[in-house]
Amino acid sequence: MHDKTVTQLAAALKSGEFSSRELTSHFLQRIEQADGNLNSFITVTAEQALKQAEAADQLRAAGNAGTLTGIPLALKDIFCTQGVKTSCGSKMLDNFIAPYNATVVEKLSAAGTISLGKTNMDEFAMGSSNENSYFGAVKNPWDLSAVPGGSSGGSAAAVAAGLVPAAMGTDTGGSIRQPAAFCGITGLKPTYGRVSRYGIIAYASSLDQAGPMARSAEDCAHLLNVIAGHDVRDSTSVARGVPDYTETLNAPLSGLKIGLPKEYFGDGLDPEVEKAVRDAVKVYESLGATVREVSLPHTHYAIPAYYVIAPAEASSNLSRYDGVRFGHRCDAPADLIDLYTRSRAEGFGEEVKRRILIGTHTLSEGFFDAYYTKAQKVRRLIRQDFLDAFEDVDVLMGPASPTPAFDLGAKKDPVSMYLQDIYTIAVNLAGIPGISVPAGFAAGRPVGLQILGTHFAEAQLLNVAHQFQQATDWHLKLPAFAEENA
Amino acid sequence: MQWETVIGLEVHVQLATRSKIFSGASTAFGAEPNTQACAVDLGLPGVLPVLNEQAVAMAVQFGLAIHADIPEVSVFDRKNYFYPDLPKGYQTSQMYHPIVGAGEVEITLDDNTTKCIRIHHAHLEEDAGKSLHEDFHGMTGIDLNRAGTPLLEIVSEPDMRNAKEAAAYLKAIHSIVTYLGISDGNMAEGSMRCDVNVSVRPKGQEAFGTRAEIKNVNSFRFVERAIAFEVERQIELIEDGGKVVQETRLFDPERDETRSMRTKEEANDYRYFPCPDLLPVVLDQAYLEHLRSQLPELPADKRARFQTELGLSAYDASVLSASREMAEFFEEVHRVCGDAKQAANWVQGELAGALNRESLSIQNSPISAQQLGGLIGRVLDDTINGKAAKQVFQALWNGQGSSADEVIEAKGLKQVTDTGAIEAMIDQVIAESPAQVAQYRDSEPEKRGKMIGYFVGQVMKASRGTANPQQVNGVLKAKLDALL
């Protein structure tokens, strides 16, 4: 069952091939057997999952099942789940049992899906390798000496290893697309405002967006159908109709205009990754698409702008972790300042502290205009780059990451880690959607093809990705780990 | 040296919305600690604010009432600082693009002259919770019921020149917000608090002196006292060769003094930046016109109308328009009895005295405006005399009867104007008072006027106050003089 897509599993549940309880038990068993090696889960909610599975089976028996009723999923540990620890990968929230559900969690539950548990992640979603988790690094099922990418590394690794058919991630600067690419799965970051952020622990509020991570674009379409839409509890979610994303998956691609941003094929791009991406583009040409080079001239300012805006918002968003109401509190504080400083010093990891410091500095009096205001101007230019490009082409394509998954512990210098996100970060600054689909291998590790569209073009992205997956089988390949360890 | 005081006020007004500015929790005062704080108010991980439209409407109404510029776009910013009763570690406020721009407020001074105080801007923000230092054995308790209550912070220009003007300004703001119904204005419950900026400069000097900010002053009286103390402190300091430092001070009403809290050097860097969780507020012209059409008559307009249309004195007009409740009560009394001057006299005289004695506000008056108007009407149409009117007032106050007419009927207070009946009572009094009659007769003519009072009193007593006093006077004089 573990090599099947959500779409296939849903059909099997519908035809009665197996029950949700059987399916859920199967995946729980795989997690039990294999996750010791991967560390992709922080919390497994086995008992609750089996109860939900039984309820789903009853619903089906009563003839009330929806498309995804009974499908097991996993949630990045950044989604608040009522009654279940929601740690955000941090010691700070190791003791935090969320008293409410995120909107995404509520919607998935209302659709009858089953949560197997909460997946590992870089602390507060800050990282590109999942090595910044308080709960330890996650390993890449394709090569246990490699990172799975981050920050949604646990979700990506768990799906790739066949421990769960699909998972939810969040993407602030590439945190869905890059781990999807590193782990050889499909990951969609929707348009900013497409999916409610309510109940998702905030890292950088103007950039954060949740999305599905699964084996195929078709699976992502099914999941986006469930989670997309306006939420009165999130003012930044957009009141705009949600189409059925599965309906347009099979639209033909003849005449599709593909742009290749020249800035995404420059220095630092691994030649094998480049070859895989260019081969993928050839597949599209064979499907009737035309290809041209385009330019996104402000691409190189994306990382500096991001590392002003995201830490600025983070420094404010993370102020609530002060040891007063919830989360880690130091032992025997001498006074209020001691309570604040020790609780935060003990509760946050190095990278989180680094970004809080950067953000606090850039917002300070005398520095605000030079950093924050300027970064916002750069952000507008970057957004305009994309809008200009989409005047000429339908979608943009390029690598999701300049290299395949790197080795655990390989990137010690934070800036070299930040540079990993060169192809994904601008997308968040512009607010547009992007998807990463498996497109081959480089040095035995998966390569992700990134496809970008204009605001709210998710249906088109999923269609373009699905057609590639109809023509290729990269997305169906499983790591040996998936078979050996369960 | 002659000194001049310069004062500016930042008034925080709690808006009377049913729910909080960014959450659905109730804003009611006085509930058990932390029972009116939801996930959003607690700043739990993952929660997001949603702006309360009612708070926006109230802020705009205030802006319209002070003839302010209302910008098309306003933006919420985060003011970052750590404090235990500030759950998110930042206060959502408006730093750069407030909802209400420059406007002005007219204040009335003791001599009934008026002065215009310019408003720099007014912005929306959320209140913090409360730190409770008692009953926790050296620890601090946090009550977050108040966290997220909408506040309108009204920032004046430094246009006030003494404590009286500052108090008058605060009263004017109080009266505007209560007229608009956007705040209950209850200062004791903290619905209105202010920060007072005070500086002094040599008279004639244009440049402002260094100011001190006195935080959280919560009554009209305290504002005057805090300013008085602070002005004296600053002048003494300068005259002794010292310098005023820019600092935040706290007023201690117990000791009647202000004390330093923190100096400018110790001040927080609040690291304001636009709140990414809230969209800019965009107000179109149609919305502003809709709110404008719903504005009630405001205190300054009412005061002017009371003088020009009703012929009240400047003083009466000012007192009667001071609060919306007072004005509405007076206008109802006037509507019922038809005589503005009498209505003004009764409301400010008999009624105000009675309310004062029992420490009641006009909203809690046991006697309604309709009852009082009815009573005045009976005086005006001579059904009862002034003395009986006071009895009727007392009866209505005590709840004995639902209207003046009912009390008059029940107590038989209807004025006797029948000359025959009055003559009969007078004859009896004269017959029963031979000594007084003799005294009257033997007196110098110019002293008799005074002595007649005795007989009037006796007759009124005999009529249980119902005889028409003017009539009694006339007939008595004629009859006594006939005895000479």
Question: Layout of SSEs?
Answer:
The complex is a heterodimer of chains A (about 475) and B (about 475).
Chain A lengths: L5 H10 L4 H19 L2 E4 L1 H16 L10 E5 L26 H8 L3 E6 L33 H8 L5 E6 L5 H7 L2 E4 L19 E6 L2 H11 L29 E5 L9 H16 L3 E5 L7 H16 L18 H12 L2 H13 L5 H25 L2 E5 L14 H5 L6 H6 L3 E9 L2 E8 L5 H14 L8 H5 L2
Parallel strand pairs in A: 2-3, 2-4, 7-8, 7-9
Antiparallel strand pairs in A: 1-3, 4-6, 5-6, 5-10, 9-11, 10-11
Helix pairs in contact in A: 2-3, 5-6, 7-15, 9-11, 9-12
Chain B lengths: L2 E12 L38 H13 L7 E2 L2 E4 L9 E4 L9 E6 L5 E13 L3 E3 L8 E3 L6 E7 L6 H18 L11 E11 L9 E6 L2 H20 L7 E6 L4 E7 L9 E2 L6 E2 L2 H9 L5 H10 L5 H7 L3 H14 L2 H18 L11 H12 L5 H12 L6 H8 L7 H14 L1 H9 L2 H18 L6 H15 L1
Parallel strand pairs in B: 11-12
Antiparallel strand pairs in B: 1-9, 1-10, 2-15, 3-4, 3-14, 5-6, 6-9, 7-8, 10-11, 12-13
Helix pairs in contact in B: 2-3, 5-6, 7-8, 7-9, 9-10, 12-14, 12-15, 14-15
Keywords:
heterodimer; A: 486 residues; alpha/beta; Amidase signature (AS) enzymes; 11-stranded mixed β-sheet; 39% helix; 13% strand; B: 484 residues; alpha+beta; Arc Repressor Mutant, subunit A; 3 domains; 8-stranded mixed β-sheet; 3-stranded antiparallel β-sheet; 15 strands; 41% helix; elongated
Describe the fold and architecture.
Chain A has 486 residues and is α/β, with parallel strands linked by helices. Chain A is built from 16 helices and eleven strands. Chain A has a single domain (6-256, 392-484), classed as Amidase signature (AS) domain (Amidase signature (AS) enzymes). Chain A has helices at 6-15, 20-38, 46-61, 103-110, 153-160, 177-183, 217-227, 271-286, 302-317, 336-347, 350-362, 368-392, 414-418, 425-430, 458-471, 480-484, and strands at residues 41-44, 72-76, 114-119, 166-171, 186-189, 209-214, 257-261, 290-294, 395-399, 434-442, 445-452. Chain A has an eleven-stranded mixed beta sheet, with helices on both faces. In chain A, helix 2 (20-38) packs antiparallel against helix 3. Chain A is globular. In chain A, 60% of the residues are buried. The model of chain A has no long low-confidence stretch (mean pLDDT 97). Chain B folds into three domains: 3-288, no CATH class; 297-411, no CATH class; 419-483, Orthogonal Bundle (Arc Repressor Mutant, subunit A), CATH 1.10.10. Chain B is built from 15 helices and 15 strands. Chain B has helices at 53-65, 163-180, 220-239, 285-293, 299-308, 314-320, 324-337, 340-357, 369-380, 386-397, 404-411, 419-432, 434-442, 445-462, 469-483, and strands at residues 3-14, 73-74, 77-80, 90-93, 103-108, 114-126, 130-132, 141-143, 150-156, 192-202, 212-217, 247-252, 257-263, 273-274, 281-282. Chain B has an eight-stranded mixed beta sheet. A three-stranded antiparallel beta sheet of chain B has the order 4-3-14, with no helix packed on it. In chain B, helix 3 (220-239) links the parallel strand 11 and strand 12 (247-252). In chain B, helix 9 (369-380) packs antiparallel against helix 10 and helix 14 (445-462) crosses helix 15. The longest helix of chain B has 20 residues, at 220-239. Chain A binds chain B through residues 79-80, 86, 88, 93, 96, 98-100, 102, 197-202, 204-206, 232-236, 312-313, 315-316, 318-320, 322, 324-326, 336, 340, 360, 363-365, 368, 372, and chain B through 39, 42-51, 78, 80, 82, 84, 87-90, 142, 269, 271-273, 276-279.
